[in-house]
Amino acid sequence: MGEKRLVYMDHSATTYTRKEVLDAMIPYHAENFGNPSSIYSIARASKNAIDIARAQVAKALGADPEEIYFTSCGSESDNWAIKGIAFANRKKGNHIITTKIEHHAVLHTCEYLENQGFAVTYLPVDKYGLVDPAELEKAITDKTILITIMYANNEIGTIEPIAELGAIARRHKVYFHTDAVQVIGNVPVDVRAQNIDLLSLSAHKFYGPKGVGALYIRKGVKIDNLIHGGGQERRRRAGTENIAGIVGLGRAIEFATADIEGHNRRIRAMRDRLLKGIVEKIPHAYLNGHPEKRLPGNINISFEFIEGESMLLWLDDEGICASTGSACTSGSLEPSHVLLATGLPVEISHGSLRLTLGNVNTEADVDFVLDVLPKVVSRLRDMSPLYQKSGKEGGCNVQ
Ligand code: PLP
């Protein structure tokens, strides 16, 4: 018997760590284990390694190295940006603007702040998941201290008009934070040109290690610390540095941003062939998110008359790793807040599948999914009384 095939199409949940990145990290778990706060030479080696990584991240974002702070993950970066701005600027105002489709790292932080006396506006999105810049401008008041809008959505892949939203924030002298966790390596970022004051990222989404992220904080931004303690990260984020992780993040961002165009071309071509094949073979299929303004590897598609969780289990049985929504919500039977915000009815949102392609995928993977997925959907529909009643005629919204 041959080995079972494994097709990983969940790159938005996490990626593997590149071999070159791992190789760069290992010495910092072994001979270069010094604490960068110490003054002997192996400690200096650690400190130098952090400086190099900081410069690598700064270059990828169009920032200065002094504007980059290392954290433990994307969630910490989001928490720091939002709580840090809220508490430091409380005297100026208590109003925060975000959207209904943010990751829970942002939404739950905003809900926490509401309990602390802050007022939060959750902007709606259109059927593609896009924020309307005019709606943002209307929502700003003289109490608004922060606008936090994600760069690209982790579930439906929609890419927001960040430069335009940032320009509105700048015009009104309101701090602008963006959760860019899904975009590094997929979309070119330039914090200056895009009027971004704070930006969150996380290494495990772009072929770096888990447990390390970064927050860009523009020089001059007034922000409180989130983690108090020692004087690491220029007294702004306490805790002995995760040196190997930081080195890995630096190398990973360098690789991820070296040829974004070429990477996108390859991933997008596979993604488009997969999407075309799915809608040709499976009736009653609806693409979620924007047809063009979307992350290159993202497909989020709803199949009427079936239940997403069962689909995932059957796909897993065939060796296909996919997701129904974000990694954090899979496993719960709550409908996705993102799909609901786009106006998708609850019953249809339950039958949605997210496939996110990335570096591990090949054309053979696309063929395999195109062979397996229609059979899985058809088997599940055969068990669905609603499908039996529907008459089985149906279309899709993808051309
Ligand atoms: N923000 C977005 C848009 C994400 O997709 C994720 C992870 O899925 C996070 C934040 C949280 O990142 P981390 O897992 O590094 O905490």
Briefly, what is this?
With 399 residues, the protein is an alpha/beta fold. It contains 14 helices and 12 strands.
Overview of this structure, please?
The chain folds into two domains: 19-258, Type I PLP-dependent aspartate aminotransferase-like (Major domain) (Aspartate Aminotransferase, domain 2); 260-390, Alpha-Beta Complex (Aspartate Aminotransferase, domain 1), CATH 3.90.1150. Helix content is 40%, strand content 13%. It contains 14 helices and twelve strands. Strand 3 (95-99), helix 4 (104-115) and strand 4 (119-123) form a beta-alpha-beta unit. The longest helix is centred in the C-terminal third of the chain and has 22 residues, at 260-281. Pyridoxal-5'-phosphate is lined by residues 73-75, 78, 103, 105, 150, 154, 179, 181-182, 202, 213, 326-327.
What kind of assembly state do the chains in view correspond to? single chain
Shape: globular
Reading the helices and strands in chain order gives EHHEHEHEHEHEEEHHHEEHEHHEHH
CATH architecture of the largest domain: 3-Layer(aba) Sandwich
β-sheet strand percentage: 5-15%
Task: Give the helix proportion (percent range).
Answer: 25-40%
Number of strands: 12
Radius of gyration based on Cα positions: 22 Å
Mean pLDDT: 94
Total of domains: 2
CATH class of the largest domain: Alpha Beta
Ligands present: pyridoxal-5'-phosphate
Structural class: alpha/beta
